[in-house]
Amino acid sequence: MSDGTGVGSGARARPRLTVLSGPSGVGKSSVLAELRRMRPEIHFSVSVTTRKPRPGEIDGVHYHFVGLPEFDKMVANGEFLEHAEFAGNSYGTPRAPVEQALASGKPSLLEIELQGARQVRVAMPEAQLVMLAPPSWEDLVRRLTGRGTEDPAVVARRLEIAREELAAEPEFDEVVVNDDVKSAARSLLNLVVGPVPDA
Ligand code: ADP
Ligand code: 5GP
Questions:
Q1: How confident is the model over 31-75, as pLDDT tens digits?
Q2: CA–CA separation, 71 vs 148, rounded Å?
């Protein structure tokens, strides 16, 4: 009998690694914050980035904020499960916490961009790739500009990348449309802790 966390007993209760990707501004952070409230026992990977913190972002909670030399040292030491450059900054997933979570029976969730998702696909083929999509292109533009955290040149660059990311939808196992944060979080929860197919 599963308790719905992926931590239950039985051959089909292997914890699952889920990758959530989607264009900047689609609502990934909002949906993950909701999911965290619903299920604190899921392991949420905390990425390392060279980006400067936004107002309200806490080091060690939203990201580990580092300088480029430290980031490059972690790359050289093989500390990342995947890493990529995005709109002028570097981002990477520390490998050890993900492996520890899965080994201890917890489902693990990474929120990363497309290049990183592709690397995880190769490194861990059993991972499930989920794309969070906007209801429409206009909604995406409205959300990204409305957030007001990036200057117009960065918004334009992020929207340019967004077109490529949305075009990669067929590479993903599942698509969740973020029309409403709570229902998107519920759909994602079902995917993160849902039945794991036999290997
Ligand atoms: P991401 O992490 O994908 O870059 P955010 O979670 O920061 O995106 O969301 C971008 C903006 O869109 C924020 O201002 C957020 O409040 C808003 N937003 C997120 N989800 C929705 C939604 N379902 N409906 C309307 N606005 C949303
Ligand atoms: P932001 O600067 O808006 O927080 O994130 C920019 C992009 O980087 C988003 O698409 C986000 O999912 C992605 N990202 C965050 N952490 C990682 C990571 O560890 N690896 C990769 N490849 N992308 C990441």
A1: 999 999 998 789 999 999 999 999 999 999 999 999 999 999 999
A2: 27
| DSSP of 38-80 | H-TTSEE---EE-SPPPTT--BTTTBEE--HHHHHHHHHTT-E
The region, left, alpha or beta by phi > 0 then psi within -120 to 50, assigned to residue 2 is beta
Give CA–CA dist 107/60, Å, rounded.
20
**What is the pTM (predicted TM-score) of this model?**
0.91
Q: Report the pocket of ligand 2 as residue ranges, CB < 6 Å.
A: 24, 28, 47, 51, 82, 84, 86, 91-93, 111-113, 115-116
Distance 86 CA to ligand 2 centre (A): 7
Q: Are 178 and 184 in contact (CB under 8 A)?
A: yes
Element (DSSP H or E) covering residue 160 = helix 152-167
Q: Which domains are present in the chain?
A: 10-193 (3.40.50.300)
